[in-house]
Design brief:
Elements lengths: L2 H16 L2 H4 L5 H4 L31 H14 L9 H4 L1 H9 L7 H19 L8 H13 L10 H17 L11 H6 L10 H5 L12 H7 L1
Helix pairs in contact: 6-9, 8-9
Length: about 230
């Protein structure tokens, strides 16, 4: 893994660890989702329409195959795996975002459709290839252009808005409770030393400054299975 990958991964892990609520937080309620934390559709943007997916392009709850491949590749570059340390693919971040957009994040469906379409157009105009076919270095240059807003051809969402949203959802998919479809096998929680729900925490556990590692780590997913 390159130095750039390591730096980006370290940033996201530290960000999640410092915001302890991220690890145990879930998706917003349906009511909260009506106020998405991204800019609303501007007046000049075309009205949102429901776009049925062709049967041969279906992937999961929301994304078609091409969209799913692009989101998976983006998330993996944002949170790359390393030997012994799972990244976005292993943690199931794609599944988390796919399920979220079919549920609580439904108001963001058109945001993602348009963002991914603009990203694909930018990559093809700049590199003559789709994002998923670019090597890691060029994918990183695309992501940097999204982050600083220099990627051409973005109207709504803007390049920076799209970057911030997918980075936020990647972190959620890494560190939210596994019941929401990500954080597979508690991969994100293990990275930041978050123990999940335990039957009991002893006095020494509460006073210790060391990372909590005692198994089993349990969460809402396990509780749901037992109920």
């Amino acid at each position: 893994m390159s130095t750039h990958d390591t730096t980006r991964r370290t940033f996201l892990v530290r960000a999640a660890a410092s915001a302890g609520a991220v690890a145990g937080a879930g998706l917003p309620s349906d009511a909260d989702a009506q106020q998405p934390a991204v800019p609303h559709t501007p007046a000049h943007a075309p009205a949102t329409t429901t776009q049925p997916r062709a049967t041969d392009s279906q992937h999961g709850a929301f994304f078609n195959r091409d969209q799913a491949a692009m989101v998976a590749a983006l998330a993996e570059r944002l949170m790359p795996g390393a030997p012994g340390k799972p990244g976005a693919r292993e943690a199931g971040v794609l599944n988390y975002i796919d399920l979220a957009l079919a549920g609580a994040y439904e108001p963001l469906q058109d945001f993602y459709r348009r963002g991914l379409a603009q990203l694909d157009a930018y990559c093809r105009a700049t590199y003559k290839e789709s994002f998923v076919r670019l090597d890691g270095a060029r994918q990183d240059r695309v992501i940097a252009a999204l982050e600083d807003g220099s990627a051409a051809g973005f109207a709504w969402p803007t390049a920076h808005e799209f970057f911030v949203t997918i980075r936020t959802h990647t972190m959620e998919g890494m560190f939210a409770d596994p019941i929401y479809g990500g954080n597979r096998d508690f991969a994100g929680w293990r990275l930041v030393g978050f123990p999940g729900a335990q039957p009991v925490f002893t006095a020494s556990d509460m006073q210790s400054r060391q990372a909590f590692t005692r198994a089993p780590i349990t969460g809402l997913q396990i509780q749901a299975r037992r109920s």
